[in-house]
Amino acid sequence: MSPKDVVALQVHGLSLAMQGRIAESVAPLYKASQLDQKNPELLSNLAKAQQGADLYEDAIQTYKKLDRLIPNNAQILTDMGTALAKSKFYDEAEALFNRAIEIQPDYFLAWSNRGNLLSDLRMSEDAVASYQKALEFNPRYAEGWTNYGNALFALGKYEDAKSAHEEALSIDPDFGEAWSNYGNTLLELKKGDESFNAYDKAFSIKPDIPYLMGQYFAAKINLCIWDESPEIKQLLDLVSVGRKVTLPFNLLQTNASLELQKIGAETFSKDRLPKSRKISLTRFQNLDRGKIRIGYFSSDLREHPVGILMQNLLRLHDRSRFEIYGFFLNLRTGDPIESALLEEFDHVIDLHGVSDSAAIDLIGKSSLDVAIDLNGHTSGARTALFAAEVAPIQINYLGYAGTSGTDFYDALIADRVAVPSEHQVYFSESIAYLPNSFFPVDTSIPVESFGDLPTRASQGLPNSGFVFACFNNAYKITPNIFDVWMRLLNDVAGSILWLSKPSPMAQLNLQKEAERRGVDSSRLIFATRTPGRLEHLSRLRLADLFLDTPNYNAHATAADALWAGLPVLTQIGHTFSGRVAASQITALGFNELIASSEEEYIAKALEFARNPLALESVRQRLEGSRAHSPLFDTKRYVKDLEALYIGLLNKANLH
Asked: Which residues, in sequence order, are CB contacts of 350 under 8 Å at separation 6+?
């Protein structure tokens, strides 16, 4: 009746916003603002709606109008700074927060939102100080407490972070984001059961928190809770349309296609990476000096599969041709692997707790020729450093079996089994192929040191019966592969399944799932943790056949089993993470251990279980392969790796 009624338009917009229909509220509020361009209340409501609908550029323009109408208002400046920060205009945002604090020193939101900005820039110590000021002025500000907890988390102060999130939840027990952040912290503290409960609570309150659905799903499968809530199909459907529902790593644990994995990685990278300044590089600046500078970046240069594998590689790098830098991204642990790695690098730079800007300056002083990201999309990654293009050649390698979804890596290292050439389209990086398996096996513990075969009783195994084994993490076990394993136990009388020991809840759930499938749960034997890798490698020889998981293969675990002489049966998948075991086995020349379907996997497992001579033949050949197989020739592997680095440098130099 009156399409230009400003009050009706504003009330319409506010009504939609109050129902949570923020995106829909923008149009009527905008129309009203065009009719009454000097109404501060109307412009404020419009700006908040635009910001709530992620229309940050539009919100910034509206806040600028407000700033002209009401200059030097701390709240308007803070809100505009927040919109600028969301758009990754960090310098402008910080200037506005500082101006707001200068105008109103006790304005807690200015301090808190400034803390959010500093956290985004990984200036975590400064962020902590800013949050502390906010909470000094408003100790009942729940959002400030949970953001404070996130900053403490970034500094590795997990117990303090836990306390901060608990404070937020004591103020607002229905604060979904705080429950989600609490879950992340509990996960880092290895409290898997409690972490799942926190994610479950968060999901029940606010299921659309960015990346929560994926974290909730991952927590469930890590505890082997196999109901369908949230359904995997729903998760993958949302990924396909670019929704921020999961971290890329969680997709490796599903049947997500390479196409979906790439979309998930692109969505995450676009959302999380700042607009980074670039280092001014002189390409290949060290080649004339005769040594190429290689920088390895990782949060896992410690007692971790990546740290163990790197220790084996670093000692074999040709130091007459290469100068090796280690960039440690994690808080120091003091464990033996970390201590050894500190000695192996020619230069060590500690970047934990260092802001992105300061880290980029430090890296620039190293004048690297090749920078290698050993994290990819795993915990502790510093992808923003690579976005700054810290070296002429940047490589995604080893730590993450998937694409980064970014445009600043020159290559991803793989082989033609793990990533066939026809899969290249699903990777944002060019694939740099090693001639054999891309996966470096740790051969640093010689087989001769294994000692006598442990007794079955010492490992809790029965004295007789076929031993199927899988030492993969619990999150790699899906209901489908567990169905297959239980079918094998039913078909092979007296057989048992020897598993890596998960959390008590996961263990109980696996036992229940076995009983549901008609298998006595006592036939699942959970291995206890050994004092060291030598003892673990030695006991692997007690198993008869390692059964791999299809979506996310055994990687370092498969390599260990093969080095110990234990045959690994895998079903080759359609993704990088699902083809790594096949890559290793192909390099060994044991194609009979690779199945192309579930039925073939079952048939091969039954054949080995029922035909001791066939299995013994494979085991003997495995033993003999240690002396000549390229999979176990680490010297050859490192030479191939060095040739790959030089090839990438030379190829780029031609352009």
From this structure: 328, 332
Angstrom distances, CA of residue 477 to CA of 496, 573, 616: 17, 15, 27
The C-alpha atoms of residue 348 and residue 326 are separated, in whole angstroms, by: 5
483 plus 379 within the same structural domain: no
Beta bridge partner(s), residue 414: 433
- Domain presence at residue 383: yes
Same domain? For 386 and 354 the reply is yes
CB 113 within 8 A of CB 138: no
User: Looking at the domain assignment, is residue 205 inside a domain?
Assistant: no
Structure tokens at 446: 């010689």
Q: What is the per-residue DSSP string for 27-39?
A: HHHHHHHHHSTT-
Read off the pLDDT of residues 383-406 as tens digits, 9 standing for 90 and up.
Answer: 999 999 999 999 999 999 999 999
| Contact status, residue 553 vs residue 546, Cβ threshold 8 Å | no
| Domain that includes residue 486, residue range | 450-633
Domain match, 330 and 472 both = no
CATH number at residue 465: 3.40.50.2000
Task: Indicate if 374 and 522 belong to the same structural domain.
Answer: no
Q: 524: part of which helix (H) or strand (E)?
A: strand 524-527
579 and 472 within one domain:
yes
Residue 399, C-beta contacts closer than 8 angstroms, at least 6 positions apart: 298, 300, 306, 373, 374, 375, 376, 378
Sign of CA dihedral 74, 80, 86, 92: negative
- By the 10 Å C-beta count (0-12 exposed, 13-18 middle, 19+ buried), 488 is classed as buried
Please report the beta strands in 235-360, taking only residues with DSSP state E, as ranges in sequence order. Answer: 292-298, 322-328, 347-350
Name 636's Cβ contacts closer than 8 Å, sequence gap at least 6: 630
* Cβ neighbours around 73 below 10 Å, total: 17
Q: How far is CA 293 from CA 230, 366, 438, 649, in A?
A: 46, 8, 21, 11
Q: Report the number of distinct structural domains present in the chain.
A: 2
**425 and 552 both lie in a single domain:** no
The residues, any chain, with a CB within 8 Å of residue 473's CB and separated by 6 or more, are 222, 500, 502
The whole-angstrom distance between residue 160's C-alpha and the CA centroid of its chain comes to 23
Burial of 218 (0-12, 13-18, 19+ CB in 10 A): buried
Give the model confidence (pLDDT) of 572-584 as tens digits.
Answer: 999 999 999 999 9
Q: Would you place residue 531 in the very low, low, confident or very high pLDDT band (cuts 50, 70, 90)?
A: confident
The answer to whether 264 touches 230, Cβ cutoff 8 Å, is no
In a domain, 262, yes or no: no
DSSP-based three-state secondary structure for 440: coil
Per the rule left: phi > 0, alpha: psi between -120 and 50, beta: everything else, 190 is left
Secondary structure percentages of the chain, helix, strand, coil, to 5: 55, 10, 35
Contacts of 243 (CB under 8 A, 6+ apart): 267
- Nearest-angstrom CA–CA distance, 155 and 207: 27
Q: Are residues 432 and 516 in the same domain?
A: no
Find the CATH number of the domain harbouring 396. 3.40.50.11380
Give the mean pLDDT of 98-116.
Answer: 98
Per-residue confidence at 655, pLDDT binned at 50, 70, 90? very low
| pLDDT per position as a tens digit, 305-354 | 999 999 999 999 999 999 999 999 999 999 999 999 999 999 999 999 99
pLDDT tens digit string along 475-501?
999 999 999 999 999 999 999 999 999
Is the pTM here over 0.90, yes or no?
A: yes
